[in-house]
């Protein structure tokens, strides 16, 4: 067995894939830069750590199930001036998770509700928090299946363990009585236990229609808005940005 074979075998045993794949380049670079043995060892170990952290963030992003990848850095606050940028940046530092507070993003289509929800969700993944992203349609269908298969307590326990639950697109689907009751159970299960980010195209005074029941809607709203950071975004649709510019 050559020295190289031995290095690779040891890397496999110790699960150091970065070092296994890059040790030759790292050695060449170290020779060129005349690194000391200490600095060489440090550089190689650091690169392996970076790869491991990146992998674990990628896994967390994948597990969260975001509908797309949207970052805070890509959000143009000047396009939506009534959004309090400072407040959003403060929330992106994730202290709201420690206090089990909610974020409520309200506004018409295209104003950036989903973008901001995902962007904060990604920050949470990067901080090793457990995050799950659902549309109302998806969560209601999972809750209904769990109810039918008698696994609802398991699903609610799993959801209660998350650091952050994101529920997107409340208002695009009307819920029947059974679905509204399940949605209420979900919100109750997380109340004062874990944060929710929810987006809706409907003002809270319309939620009675979404849930087909004013009493259930009020109970859901009450729990969501208590300890929450609500944002009412009433600006223009970013999707129509180009159209607006050419027409003005
Ligand atoms: N201020 C912004 N800066 C950069 N991109 C934006 C901004 N606002 C929205 N976008 C982009 O415009 C598109 C629509 O935004 P988004 O999906 O967040 O809208 P929404 O408020 O969730 O609308 P809907 O109610 O239709 O779901 C996305 O591609 C998003 O990344
Ligand atoms: Mg959206």
Unreliable stretches: none
CA distance, first residue to last residue: 73 Å
CATH fourth-tier homologous superfamily of the largest domain: P-loop containing nucleotide triphosphate hydrolases
Bulk shape: elongated
- What do the pLDDT scores average to? 94
> How many domain regions?
2
The CATH architecture name of the largest domain reads 3-Layer(aba) Sandwich
Helix content: 55-70%
Annotated CATH topology of the largest domain: Rossmann fold
Radius of gyration: 23 Å
Largest sheet report: 5 strands, parallel
Count of helices?
A: 12
Give the ligands present.
adenosine-5'-triphosphate, magnesium ion
Listing every helix as H and every strand as E from the N terminus to the C terminus, the arrangement reads: HHHHHEHEHHEHEHHEH
User: What is the CATH top level name of the largest domain?
Assistant: Alpha Beta
Strand order of the largest sheet: 2-3-4-1-5
E-strand count: 5
**Helix- and strand-based class?**
alpha/beta
């Amino acid at each position: 067995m050559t020295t190289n074979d031995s290095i690779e075998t040891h890397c496999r045993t110790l699960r150091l894939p970065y070092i296994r794949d890059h040790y030759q380049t790292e050695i060449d670079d170290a020779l060129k830069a005349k690194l000391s043995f200490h600095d060489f060892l440090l550089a190689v170990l650091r690169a392996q750590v970076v790869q491991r952290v990146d992998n674990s963030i990628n896994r967390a992003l994948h597990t969260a199930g975001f509908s797309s990848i949207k970052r805070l850095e890509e959000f143009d606050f000047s396009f939506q001036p009534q959004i309090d940028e400072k407040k959003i940046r403060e929330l992106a530092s994730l202290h709201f998770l420690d206090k089990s507070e909610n974020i409520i993003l309200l506004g018409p289509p295209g104003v950036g509700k989903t973008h901001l929800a995902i962007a904060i969700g990604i920050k949470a993944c990067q901080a090793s928090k457990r995050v799950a992203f659902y549309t109302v349609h998806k969560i209601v269908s999972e809750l209904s299946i769990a109810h039918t298969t008698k696994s609802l307590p398991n699903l609610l326990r799993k959801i209660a363990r998350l650091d952050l639950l994101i529920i997107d697109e409340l208002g695009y689907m009307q819920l029947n009585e059974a679905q509204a009751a399940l949605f209420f159970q979900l919100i109750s299960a997380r109340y004062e236990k874990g944060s929710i980010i929810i987006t809706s195209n409907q003002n809270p005074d319309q939620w009675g229609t979404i849930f087909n029941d004013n009493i259930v809607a009020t109970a859901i709203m009450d729990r969501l808005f208590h300890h929450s950071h609500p944002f009412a975004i009433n600006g223009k649709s970013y999707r129509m940005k180009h159209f607006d510019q050419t027409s003005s």
